[in-house]
Amino acid sequence: MPVLLPQSEYRRMQWANGGGETWEVARFPQGQAVSGFDWRISIATISESGPFSSLAGIDRLFLPLQGAGVWLTIGDGEPKLMETGDAAIAFRGEEACDCRLVDGMVRDLNVMTRRGICTAKLVRHHDAGPLPLPAGAEVILLLALDTTGIQIGQTDHELGPLDSLMIDNPQRDAPLLRSDGKLIAISIFREDEEVAR
Q1: Closest residue by Cα to residue 162 from 182, 135, 139
Q2: 157-to-52, 140, 153, 174, 192 alpha-carbon distances in Å
Q3: What's the number of CA atoms in the CB half-sphere (13 Å) around residue 186?
Q4: Quick one: the chain helix, strand, coil %, rounded to 5?
Q5: How many CA atoms lie within 13 A of 161 on its CB side?
Q6: Chain mean position to CA 163
Q7: Distances from the Cα of 83 to the Cαs of 101, 115, 196, in angstroms?
Q8: Cα–Cα dist 38/121, whole Å
Q9: pLDDT greater than 90 at residue 56
Q10: Domains present along the chain, CATH in parentheses
Q11: Residue (of 141, 183, 191, 114) closest to 26 by Cα position
Q12: Model confidence over 17-27: pLDDT tens digits?
């Protein structure tokens, strides 16, 4: 059954270093401490330049949503400019990552998965029409970038900017999926049980 997650109900947490704020969209298992997730999807407001926290064993996807962008320096690599509209960048949570704001506050999407347990795929959809379902996804979360209508079967869902719709077992619960606005589809895949354990 699809679950609507209004952005007004996202859990908000200030960063320990005071450099920003996180809105937690969803995580699993929900009852675990924030550090014990298999996967976590959040939106961050970055108000100051500085390093990202080290997250051992976590794979990260980072995507700017609003603002002038950031320069990211990951490990010993060259600084990379990330702007709104760019594809997501992937990196390992234990890698040193320094973030420099281009011109003022930036809001970004973060998808984190525990290595060996889950993986994630992130796709932007710019146009109205059918949304393809990736085979094998355990969960799909649709994040609206503006006011967006989403049709699942015969049921319509209206989402405001940065609202989300989470669909467990999408192959069963969302056989026909369409949208009429811009959104980001985040798919979570469970790795093979033998590999995961």
Answers
A1: 182
A2: 35, 15, 11, 12, 33
A3: 28
A4: 5, 50, 40
A5: 4
A6: 12
A7: 10, 27, 34
A8: 15
A9: yes
A10: 10-114 (2.60.120.10), 118-196 (2.60.120.10)
A11: 141
A12: 677 899 999 99
Structure tokens belonging to residue 24: 């937690």
Q: What is the pLDDT of residues 103-150, one digit of tens each?
A: 999 999 999 999 999 999 999 998 888 888 888 999 999 999 999 999
Calpha distance 13→1 (Å, rounded):
28
Q: What is the pLDDT of residue 100?
A: 96
Q: How confident is the model at residue 197 (pLDDT cuts 50, 70, 90)?
A: very low
Residues 6+ apart with CB under 8 A from 21: 12, 13, 14, 15, 44, 45, 47
**Count of CB atoms situated within 10 Å of the CB of 191:** 16
Looking up tokens 């996967």 gives 39
